[in-house]
Every structure is written in structure tokens, then in C-alpha cells.
Here is the input.
Amino acid sequence: MKNPSTFNPKNRTGGRDLLRGHDIGYIYRGLWRYLSHDKWKLLSAIFLTVVSGVLSITGTSLAASAIGAIAGENTGDVYLYLLLMVVFYVLSSVIAYLLSVVMLKLSQRISAKMREDIYRKLVTLPVGFFDRHQAGEIVSTVTYDVNTVGESLSSDFLQIISSLATVIYAFILMITVSLRLMIVFFVTIPLSILLTHIISKITRPLFRKRSAALAEMNGYAEEMIAGQKVIRTYAAEDAVGAGFEEKNSEASNAYINAEANGTMAGPSVNFVNNLSMTLVNIFGAILYMTGGGLSLEGLSRFVLLSRKFSGPINQIANIYADIQSALAAAERVFRLIDETPEPEDFADARALPPPHGEIRFSHVRFGYDPARPVLKDLSFVASPGSVTAIVGPTGAGKTTIINLLMRFYDIDDGSILIDGEDMYSFTRDSLRAAYTMVLQETWLFRGTVYENIAYGREGVSREQVEAVCRAARIHSYIESLPEGYDTVITEGDAISKGQKQLLTIARAMLMDSPMLILDEATSNVDSATEKDISDAMIALMRGRTCFVIAHRLSTIRDADRILVVREGDVVEQGTHDELLEKRGFYSELYHAQFDTA
Here is the structure.
């Protein structure tokens, strides 16, 4: 018998944590992965950036030539140099503006591609990933982190390239003017690099912590907004407010701590550059006055070039905090994109043929944490077309059984058979398509009532939709809406949970799946409606293999078989009457609910 552990990692342990991993090379490779999609445009932008920097430095060099011409009283040359200087500066500015527009478009295309890749990855991730991460944390990565990376690419990246080009060209020109004065930079440049490296090691973890704190705050806020009714019901506004203040304070402190330490790079490097400028002026003046082979024009050119050389270094240092923030955001984005998806099916897996519906659990063992098993040695058989109810106390493993049936998680040991064949010999998609699920948590999207009910069924007619709505006892309510079945459902609509539940039940009735799973499907409706739905569901379930999870035991009296799960094992099974006659654990549960003992 095939076991999933022999061919793939478990869903629940696969993948990485969004905050794990600190390899800077990994981040750079990830950035290049996206930049390389527009490789030629990027290379063109870099080339034009270099040209812009060269034009700017050439204009500065012409200014020094104009000073030399003034000293030599060559008026014609002075005007020529000044005119050329203006032309070079204008050309440099025009190219810089065009480049900023190009990089803005490029960065937004990259951001859009990142968001698309994240979405595509999210729909392939195992359910266990969403069990481990809050929705707000994921949304924070999709929005805040991606936007941070995009903004950095549109501004910081271009500035870094321009600054590097300017620094290299200015460095070459300074060497041609005075090699002796370059000794100053041979000392101050390594000092700047050392300071930046030290500050980088200190601040990079702080920016990771900042991103994590912001994501945690967003996750908390999203959770509290979704639970506003419950919060108000329990008058927990103050407690929730205090919780948010704590998360907000942690996020603010993490932000301040990261930014405060990150901005150390700017003043530190600026100090070193100012020191180098002072030394250049001092030693340059000494060389000029002592006849050390440095003319007034040469000194002027070197000083102006050294300013061009130091200026970009200062600019990079001043945006250092933004760069670190972007790197931390990029790491979270790439960790999410590189999360391990659901394990692949067997190489020889085939589509599940229309099943008869016999489901057999044989000595199944499973735990979300392998060290703490939820199901220890579970065995039972659900006959084709039967209704199997699963009952038991909270934490007994009822929902876990459904998770395994749908292959949201893979078992640790044992086997699950469908019509006598191992479930893992079928493709996951075809397996899930064989089931229709109605969950306790209702999910309706922004769209018409008709679109919500017809979700998952292409080409379904209005008559079919109305038929299932009548069976679900929701047709009259829909007809009372302003636009009937064409009424658009929005988040603010006053639709009760019971009505939402009925809509999802109608959606399930419309599906042709041969197997049905009901997880507390009638928990949000009143007793009278519950009876109506139960009658309709009995007709719907006829001929299908059905699994029903219910805490309200009155809803499963007519089930063909009731499995009583306790501490991961089926401790009793039989019909409602048979289990009551045994006076075992099911009888205790039943009498505890209805006080009929």
C-alpha cells in the first residue's frame, strides 16, 4: 500500500517560515530573477544612467576648465566652456527624468509580476500554510512588502547605479589630475566601506523585525475587524483596544529602532567624506603653494571632481535605511513565493473515475505535529450511498477526518481506500472534485445571488438555481430582495448567518459530486429551518456517500452509521438507536445534550 511519506514531504511541515533565512545572496538572486524579465530594458536604463552621470561629470570638468580659462584671461574659451557646461547639464537632467519614468514603469511591472506570482503560489499552498499564518500577515506581504520593493526599484536602484557610475568616472578623472591627492581617498574609502558593513550587520535584522512586527499588527487588526460582532457581544472593546495598542507600540518601536539605526550610515559616511574633502583642500593647497606640480586649474578640477565623487557616496549612505527596508521586504516576498506547494501526486496517479462511494479508513495515524498524534489507530468503513455521521467531543479528531478525506493533509501511517483502491493512486484535483463540502464558515463573494449559488458550475440555468433554492428553503427570501436573484451581495448587506448558510447549502445542492461532506452545516439556522433543511438534505443525499459532522445530535438520528470518535479512535459505531441501547459514550453525550436520562 502506498504511503505519502515515501514520496513527498508532509503538507504541514513543508515550506519555510516567512521570516526565516538571512542569506543576502538569496535576496539579490530573487531581485535579479524579476529584473531579468526586462533584461534589455534594464541594460538600456543602466547604460543611459551611466551616460547621464558622465555628462554631469563632464559638465563639472568643464567648469574647472572655465576657471583655468579665466585665470589665463581667455574670454572666448570661458564662454565656450560655460555654454558646453550648460548643454551637458541639461542633457544629463533630461536623460535622468526619462530614466526615472522608465524605471517607474519597470518597477510597477515587476511589482505586478510579484503580486501575480504570490497569488499563483497561494492557490498551490497546502492548507497547513494558512493554518500557520494569519491572513493579515499574508496581505501585508502582498501589499506593503511588494510596494516597498517596487518603490525602491523605481528610485533607490536608479540612484545607486547613477551614483556608482559617477563615482567610478570621477575616480578615473581624479587619478589623471593628481595621483598624490588620491592617497586621501585610499584611506577614507575603505573606512566608509568598513563603517557601512558594520552598520549593515547591525541594522538588517532590525528591518526584518520591523517587517515582522508590521505584519503581526496587520494580522491582529484583520482578525479583530472580522470579529467585531463577537467583540461587542462580549464587551471586549477595551481588551481588544489594549491588544492593538500593544501590537501598534511594538510595530512603532521596531520601526523607530530600525530607522534610527539605519540612518547612522548617512551621518557616518558623510563625516568621512567631509573629512576627505577637508584633507583634499589642505593637501591640495600645500601642493599648489609649494609648486608640487599642481596648477590652479588642476586643483579646481580635482576639488570639483572630489565633490562629484563624494556626493553620490553621501546619497547612497542617506538612502541606506530605505535600501535595508527594501531588502527586508524583498526577503519576505521571495520566501513566500518560494514556499513549498502541496506535494505532487504520484507519477502514475490517474484521475478518479466516477466512484461508487465506499470509503475505508484502515489503521490511520495522523498528527498535525508528528510528535502529538490526533488520530492514533482509526479504522471504519462508509458504505456506498450511506450517511455516516461523525460525533465526539471537541478535539477528538472529527474535522481532521474530513481534512484527510480531502487530502488537505497527508496521513502518517495506514491507508484510506476509495472503492478498494488507495486514495493516493488518484490525482488530488480529481479526488476533491468528487466531494461537495458545506462548512460551518460561510463564504460568499461580492456578486449576485445567482453567481454565488452557481459558483463552480458553468452553464447552469436559472431554473436549476431556483430549484435548489426552493429545496433549501431560501427561494422566498431571495425573491423578497430588491433585485431577486440579480441582487448584488456586499459585505455590508444585512444578511443573517442562517441565510448565508442556506445560500451555501443551495450551492452544494447544485453540485453533482457523488460524495458529500457536511461540517456543522445547519449550525447557523433555527430549529424549524433546520428540520426543513434536513428533510431536503435527505433527498439530496440519497445515492451519495455522505459524511456529516454534528455537535447537535438531533440532526444525525437518521444516519446509516454514527462514528463516535474519542481521543483519535472510533470507540463506538452503529445507528442512533443501537448506540443508545449500548448506554456507552454516545448515550452520555446524547443525554447530556437533551437531559433525557
User: Anything to note?
Assistant: Residues 1-21 have pLDDT under 50 and may be disordered. The radius of gyration is 35 Å. The CA atoms of residues 22 and 590 lie 54 Å apart.
